[in-house]
Amino acid sequence: MKKDVEELLLGLEISEKSIPKICEILKKIEDKKERDYLDALKKLCTTAEGRDTLSSYDLEWFRKLAAFNAKRGKLTRAYDIVKRVMEIAEKFPENSREKISFRLFYMMISYELNKRTEVIKQAKELLGIEKFVPEDLRATYYNDLGLVASYFEIGEDPVELLEKAMKYPEDFAGSLLAPYNLTEYYYYRGDFEKALNLVTSLKKKAFDYLLSKCAVMELKCFLALSEIEKAENVVKELEKMNSENPERLDMGISLVFLGYYYVSRGDIDKAEEYVRWIDRILEREYTPYLYGESQALKAEILNAQGESFKAIEVMIEAFEILRKEKILSPHVRKYLKSALFRLWDIFKKLVNELRQRDDYTASHTLRVSYFAYSLARHMNYSTTDLFYLIIGGMLHDYGKIKVPLEILNKKGKLDPEELKAIRKHPVYGAEFLEGLKFPDLIRHVVLMHHERIDGKGYPLGLKNGEIPEVAQIVAIADIFDALTTDRPYRKALSKEEAVKYLLSLRGQLVEDHLLNNFAKMAEMIQPRNYRIAFEEIWRETIEDLFEVVE
Questions:
Q1: Reported pTM
Q2: What does DSSP assign to residue 402?
Q3: Cα(302)–Cα(343) distance, integer angstroms
Q4: What is d(CA 418, CA 406) in angstroms, rounded to the nearest whole number?
Q5: Cβ neighbours, 10 Å, residue 200
Q6: Which residues contact 354 (CB under 8 A, 6 or more apart)?
Q7: In three state form, how does the secondary structure of 313-330 look?
Q8: Hey, how many other C-beta atoms are within 10 angstroms of the C-beta on 548?
């Protein structure tokens, strides 16, 4: 089919009155290579010729048209078709077999694109019409709802739904899809042995697309169990399938886990080859989930290559995407968690690097990060923002590594030139992060933690309303720690004296509500080993992060 004709058909405003127009276009098309596509449309239009209304029977042909797109990886196009037709289909009776089938397809294509709100809405509505579902559609009905219930809260037990589907073994969904979806359920909940037993049995009767999905699941389970030797035969099998049918719907995810296999084998060149293949798929059809998974793989490759900071950049982006997707496979979760904990090892190196130049600054970064975290948590910040705030606190003074030691450790008052030099450290720190895709929250902390709402801060001279709250939080923590530690030119203030001084800066330092919250939070601060305290909040925050996505 000529591409311009295909685009015209897909771009039509689908409505009851558009059917005759579709008919006219189809009569002009002759291309045997796209016969399935044309047959679906021609059958649709054969039933529609001579009238200008859409019947419930027509829904089946629109569903086939959308399915044709979906099977060829054009998920967004498939979704556009069913979304537009669904608006017309709402007026048809709930007990119409064609409408139920179409709604199930609409729910599943929305599920593939992770359109959470639409999936949950459709699922709950479909649960309410169970009594209308025809016998020959029940396996598909229970299977699809079981799959959705595995990842979204719809008020039903996914295992019970999938087992209901399996009571209809004469149906493809009942005999093959439901058992496979049950393996995914166990896999995502960490019961790898049970998932592996199920999928190994299922492979004996699976074929085509489902056979490749089973192979991917086997590989995922072996990797999760660290049984790399057993994974080798599955890898060969999957690579053969990929070469024979590179347009499969699950191609992208298979490449991700093949990449992880080769990283585990130390064959980074092969892993990077798969990353490039995934990138080509994403160029044709971008999906956030596949992109997030591929970024997690890239982070692991970078770690294997010793590119620690670059790995942090990519890993943070991967986590942010996968957190939004709410679907994080156990294997990728393990790699991401490992990478997040490795960040602490990297930060320890940073602290040691700073300590070699200035012991105070090294210890100061840990304490500031801890105090900033404590204030933000007191203010009910999200787990993700707490995570980024901890990193920002750790890096907020890293730019001081470029400030001459004699200035950093000077006991007396700094002269104007020395003051000018030390006030460059936020810019130096920001330059350190330049080019990295760290979230704005981290970059704002590093660059703006010395800004003041009265406009007398540095390096940008920002005023009230221009300074992000996270930077103001670190500013309070920064000053509080400076006041409560001994310095060469003065003795430390008590906690109460430091809080009193901070409160005296109302209208100058930060917004009042932040000072008020800090004063309340500071009452709970007790002297302790802040290196250990930092490790505790780091570990706690990472564990909380993974609760968010599980």
A1: 0.62
A2: G
A3: 13
A4: 9
A5: 14
A6: 361, 362, 365, 397, 398, 400, 401
A7: HHHHHHHHHHHHHCCCCH
A8: 13
Quote the CA–CA distance of 178 and 210 in Å, as a whole number. Answer: 11
**Contact (Cβ atoms closer than 8 angstroms) between residue 312 and residue 276:** no
| C-alpha 310: how far from chain center | 18
Helix (H) or strand (E) holding 253: helix 251-264
What's the token pair of residue 449?
Answer: 């933690």
What is the spatial distance between Cα 150 and Cα 145, in angstroms, rounded to a whole number? Answer: 9
What does pLDDT average to in each consecutive run of 10 residues of the chain (550 residues)? 47 54 52 46 46 58 73 75 74 78 90 86 93 92 93 91 92 88 90 93 84 92 91 94 82 92 95 95 84 89 79 75 67 68 70 69 84 94 87 87 81 85 90 73 92 94 93 95 80 90 94 94 82 82 66
For the record, the structure tokens of 214 come out as 């089973």
β partners of residue 454: 463
Q: For residues 395 and 384, what is the distance between their CA atoms, to the nearest angstrom?
A: 17
Spell out the alpha helix ranges (H) of 326-408: 330-357, 359-378, 383-395, 405-408
How far, in Å, CA of 348 to CA of 534, rounded?
A: 11
Structural tokens at position 385 = 């923002």
Q: Considering the chain, what percentage of its residues have pLDDT values greater than 70?
A: 79
pLDDT score, position 35? 47
Going from the C-alpha of 138 to that of each of 104, 132, 500, 522, the distances in angstroms are 11, 10, 69, 60
Is the dihedral angle over the CA atoms 522, 527, 532, 536 positive or is it negative?
negative
8 A C-beta contact, residue 368 and residue 396 = yes
Unique residue bearing structure tokens 């054009």: 74
What are the strands, taking DSSP E only, across 204-292? none
Residue 516 CB contacts under 8 Å (≥ 6 apart), including other chains:
none
How many C-alpha atoms does 93 have within 13 Å on its Cβ side? 6
- Rounded to whole angstroms, the Cα distance separating 374 from 407 reads 31
pLDDT, one tens digit per residue, over 37-82 is 445 454 444 444 444 455 666 677 677 777 767 766 677 878 887 8
Contacts of 489 (CB under 8 A, 6+ apart): 411, 412, 413
Closest among 154, 156, 198 to 176, alpha carbons compared: 198
* Interacting residues of 483 by C-beta distance below 8 A, sequence separation 6+: 492, 493, 497, 498, 501, 502
pLDDT for the residue 325: 63
Spacing of C-alpha 3 from chain mean position? 33
Query: Which residue is associated with the tokens 């770690």?
Result: 303
Nearest to 502 by CA among 522, 488, 485: 522
- In this structure, how many other beta carbons lie within 10 angstroms of the beta carbon of residue 383? 19
d(CA 192, CA 194): 5
CA contacts within 13 A on the Cβ side of 297: 31
Task: Supply 49's token pair.
Answer: 């010729």
